[in-house]
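User: I'm putting together a teaching handout on how multi-component assemblies are represented. Below are the sequence lines for each component of a complex, exactly as they appear in our records. Could you produce the 3D structure of the whole assembly as structure tokens, so the students can see both representations side by side? Please keep the chain order the same as the input.
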Amino acid sequence: MGKRFLGNMLIVAMLILAVTVVGAQTNVIKIATQSPLSGGMSAVGTDIKNGAQLAIEQLSGPLTKMGFKVELAPFDDQGNPDTGVANAKNIVADPSVLAIVGHYNSGVQIPSSEEYHAAGLANVSPANTNPKVTERNYVEVSRICGRDDVQGAVGAQFAKTKGIKSAYVIHDKTAYGQGIAEYFQRESKNIGIQVKGFAGTEEKANFDSILTPILASKPEVIYFGGMYDQAAVMFKQARQKGYKGMFLSDDGFDSSDASKIGGQALLDGKGTYFSTVSGPASAYPGTAKFIADFKAKFGSEPQPFAAQSYDSAALALLAIETAAKAAGNKMPTREAVTLAVRAIKAYKGITGVITFNGKGDLVKAKYFIIQVTSIDPLKWSMNKIDKVLEIEPPK
Amino acid sequence: MRTVQVPVAVREIVRPLVRMTIFVVGAGAVFSAVMILLAALFRGSGADKLLLENQGVGILSYTISILPQVLIDGVTLGFVYAAIALGYTMVYGVLEFINFAHSEIFAIGAFAGVEFLIFMDKLGILAKASIFTSYILLLMSVLAGMMASGTAAVIVERTAYRPLRSAPRLVPLISAIGVSFILQDLIRLVESLTTGQFHRIFPTFGNFDDRVPLFTFKVGQEPIDVDIQVKSIVVIGAAVAMLVGLNYIVNATRIGKAIRAVAQDRNTAGLMGVYVNGVISFTFLLGGALGGAAGVLYALKFTRIDPFIGFFPGLKAFTAAVLGGIGNLTGALLGGIVLGMLESFAGAYLTTFTMGAMGAEYKDILAFAILILVLIFRPSGLLGEQVSQKA
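Assistant: Of course. Below is the structure of the complete assembly, with chains in the same order as your input.
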């Protein structure tokens, strides 16, 4: 509580400061971030902000030499679409903001980016996987992570490599969970895995009546599209009812709380796997220095998407620099920065080589299949990476 | 003529047991018969063909093959609902108002029991517990839940309901809804201050997750194993013991007689020397303790709890109480079992019979639609009119 209050005060103070500074001089460039800094998802959200902060501190040298002062403007979207859009209105109203790194939730990014699009502000997303993020063809919106439609398909292909012939698909009825489950189902049918059933549920505690038909149909894998707080409970109850097969889920399962809830049930039988667009930071070749710097500065291991956020901010800085040079070392326009983001080719980021296609997706994005190997929540980041795939987005 | 005099104590223990058996067997038989009939009618339909294509069985044999499991789940859930429903129905019997805070009383019990076990787990006692000690520990956690909930219910009655007792009927109802919100956030506050998180997990210990094989039967060529989880047996056993105990207290003891007297006519009971306030407090203590025990059993069965866990079970238990005839103890039991079965059957069969158009998530809609139908034809509930006395 105290920390959050202090944090809010700090943001207010920074905003006041920012307003006075803007009044005094015009060569301040701001990169905004939007992520949940409070509430249940704040662990991941705060590290999205921290990743961007680290990038600005380490990589804003060239812009400083040109006489600019680069600042971070962090906003708390609370994982809530309304708050995200309200923040977005404030962000686009500040002319010194030339790029925005965010969000964590696709459901927040999609409405907020309408504001960025209207204002021509470049948005680099570290974590938003919903296809709609880039399917709108907004030149302002680019992302450096994979997509749910591919992720669902990756899950199905993985199941196939394990010799699985039948699956039962459950989802949480949200845009995210149902979407990814439908992609899993479609790909399964394409590659010859029999889908024995497809159902949605908002149930959080009592899965008895849902599990009975699932177990009766004896699927080799149960796929859950949704978040860990439902999936882990359902997996545990399925095991207790005698299910021996494999569990498979998506990146919503990627939380150490999943092992706390599921416990031994996740390791029994054929085990538990999940697909994700963001492997643990150690899974990327270029991240050793990033992890060390991050730990030195913030005192903890980076959460998923912190490295992607670092790269997002680095891309934004590079684009601003290019645009400023083209404008004769003057403050570039938002349009110029937006175009410069998309013009970047083969940028060597810490999460891989980044080139965007016409929609703003990566030309090739990484997808991971991770196996749960320990019931100790502290060892969650050491789960085994079973497979890494680089896949093009659908045309 | 010789009349056999059965002592009251024995009668009040045997009678509820007989009733429970009749209700469970009766409801199970009726639901199974309806289901099998439906399946027979659906033969040759699209749902039948889809099932043959996907799983290689026809709809009739599919229905029969999962029937025992559905029945077991339904009975377990039914007893949990019945135990919560008693809290609503007792308070209604005595005060004639709906104690909507009862769902949070249930949640308080769940938290007290689970926190006790988590504490034991931290001390390392759970990991070392033998089968016998693990049952003792479970009993202790149920008692912890009963104490916490009973106390909370008495405090709520004293502070939020008693000052409003002579006010119009709607006033304490609003007060109850307010208390319900306050208690939810109180649990949240206490949990965030003490443990820093309010999603709690029931620790794994003892043999509660094991399965006891019951019997094997054949549908066509395929043998079907039917087994039951130890925790389901524990839930059913504990609920039966509580229901019998409550019935005994209400019908065969002095304080029970006082409760029935207050339920019939509060003023006259007061004139006859019954300490009305004390009796009402005791009613809340009893109902609260039952709700608390049900909370711990619910956590045992379904593993995960949060401060809002009481809302749906509470709503459904209230429904069960109305379905059985509110104010009627036997009715609450019947209502709980019927609602538990309805939910279990709808959840398990809806997807198959509608070919996936309506998934298990529609189980509540179906259950409540049937409930509305029952109440249209029997507005005072299934057993509402047969009662000669309330409580």
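A couple of points students might notice: Chain B has 14 helices and four strands. The longest helix of chain B spans residues 59-95.
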